[in-house]
Amino acid sequence: MEKVPGSPSVGGSCPQKTAEILSSQYGINLFLAGLVLTFAWAVHAVGISKSHLLSYLITLMLIQLLWMLWYLCRSCTQRRLIREKDTHAGARWLKCGITLFAVITLILDSFKIGYYVDFSNCLSAAEGIFPVTHAIHTILQVYFLWCHAKDIIQSFKTLERFGVIHSVFTNLLLWTNGVLTESKHQLNEHKERLITLGFGNITIVLDDHAPQCNCTTTTLCSIFSQGIYYLYPFNIEYHILASTMLYVLWKNIGRKVEHHQQHKTPFKFHGITVGMIFGLIVLISTIAKVVVYLIQIGRSKNKSELALTMFYLHAISVLALMCTAGIVALLIYRLEDRSLDNSKNPARKLDAELLVGTAAGSWLLSWGSILAIICAQAHPKYTWYNLPYSILVIVEKYIQNLFIIESIHRKEEKVNDDIKTLRIVTISRGSTLSLTPAYKEIYNGRAACDDGELPYLLNGTACARENDGAKEAASQANCPAMHSAPEFPFYSRNSVTNNKRRILKNIAAFLFLCNLSLWIPPAFGCRPEYDNGLEEIVFGFEPWIIVVNLAMPFSIFYRMHSAASLFEVNCKT
Fold first, then answer.
1. Which long-range contacts (CB under 8 A, 24 or more apart) does 474-482 make?
2. Closest to 372 measured CA to CA, from 179, 197, 528, 206
3. What is the pLDDT of residues 190-232, one digit of tens each?
4. Would you list the domain boundaries of the chain?
5. CA distance 28 to 209
6. Which of 49, 57, 101, 161 has a beta carbon 3.0–4.6 Å from 238's, enabling a disulfide?
7. pTM of this prediction?
8. Assign residue 451 a region: left if phi > 0, alpha if psi is -120 to 50, beta otherwise?
9. Helix (H, G, I), strand (E, B) or coil at 209
10. How far is CA 253 from CA 11, 77, 141, 192, 305, in A?
11. Which residues pair with 422 in a beta bridge?
């Protein structure tokens, strides 16, 4: 084990590179073993029950709990040591987001405990132990991420690699388990609705994993069983966020970082009113659409067709607006001349890869729908709306990915600490007008006063350091006046820059709320890919359902991850 903080980075250490490869292979095999077990339970394999899967997950969580406790105890004993931190990892808004999802996950665990108590006569002990263990695991993991997500581990690196990668794949397996459970519930509801759309030639066989005994309290059982499935989307997002944060921690083990100060970029509502208003309109209309869709779908053929038509028309409108906003933002970027930051940054690299990788899920569904529309012999009226919807899904994600990835790679304007507190005081007809343009615009004046320390404005201005009255008066007396005209070229340029920044912030805010809006429908059961019925006729029921169940989780995660990335873009702009 290495304990020397000054040990070489991963790239220059052969033993550490070997440890990285070994730990990654350990994690992959851990995940694949759990994946096979999950698949065996899903298809009702002989000799495999839900208790076997839950026992495996409980074991993984207990091992992770032991590692986290060891790490926390070791951190407490070394509290006085100066630790290197990755300022780009574990942003505060990301921690707040995962905390919110964790709180709802704890509510889900309490529902599962209540469900187990009501059906305790016919459920295995593992189904009661799992939610208790999961709740403890959730609490400790959130605390761990709040305190140590930014850590760059430089001691016990080999052991820590295995501990962190174990945590990454434990969360991925818990995510997989949540996705599968929620998908099976959605599939059962979908099969029951297909008959109302007239697809009677599809065999309806419910995949039922319900307990084979009566509930002790019928009302409570109904609340628990229904509530669990409405809370699963938050549990799914919690585990995928936790796994990404832990993966960044794993990539940072042994890494050497440049010691430079990162400017804090807090979120501000000022200047984004237009984007927020339009985004909230989309959000409210989306919630209303989901409520109407879930009420109408499956009631009758006419109501189901109207619900699908409403869904497609609303989605087409929102996606068209998002495409327009993204194109405007990219055009503004083309007009600016700012270089990209290509320095090594695991968090930023992971964000970009997740955006493109998870977008592939919805692209797969969209191309499947396009092909089904082209090849189908009969086309109900509502299915034609699926064509522009599918095309816009592909185009919108393409544009949005380009906008987000370029935004997170753009270099921030650096401000010199000696000059960023300047105030520009303009003298005009005996009065003073205080302006505070961006430092870049002041600096581009290529002039200085007071022995080169303070820049001054063209057109008869004086400059002074803020909060220094004596020096301000001296500056006003000594700074030369180049022109007496009232025109301020640099101020005009600064105004244009501020307008561009304001437009970009409004676009980012609008896209942020739109992505949250588009996350809601599939996360809560509004999935036309299931209910459309046309794809199932062309591709076959089972093949298309397999494609949807594989691609939908990535499509749902894409929207939440895009929203998180756009929040960061808004803070950075």
1. 474/450, 475/449, 475/450, 476/425, 476/427, 478/449, 478/450, 479/449, 479/450, 479/454, 480/449, 480/456, 482/447, 482/458
2. 528
3. 776 666 556 555 555 555 556 666 676 667 777 787 788 788 8
4. 15-201+211-256, 270-412+494-572
5. 28
6. 101
7. 0.72
8. left
9. coil
10. 11, 20, 18, 50, 54
11. 465
Tell the residue number behind the tokens 């029951």, with chain if given: 192
The edge-to-edge listing of strands for the beta sheet with 431-435 is 431-435, 422-428, 461-465
166 and 30 Cβ atoms separated by less than 8 Å: yes
Helix/strand/coil for 425: strand
In whole angstroms, how far apart are CA 515 and each of 98, 225, 412, 557, 566?
Answer: 17, 29, 25, 11, 9
Cβ atoms of residues 346 and 546 within 8 Å: no
What is the DSSP secondary structure assignment for residue 241, as one 8-state letter?
A: H
- Encoding tokens for residue 284? 């409210």
pLDDT digits (tens, 9 = 90+) for 411-443: 665 544 444 444 444 434 444 444 444 434 433
Structure tokens at 492: 């005009």
132 is written with which tokens? 């208790």
Cβ atoms of 472 and 465 closer than 8 Å: yes
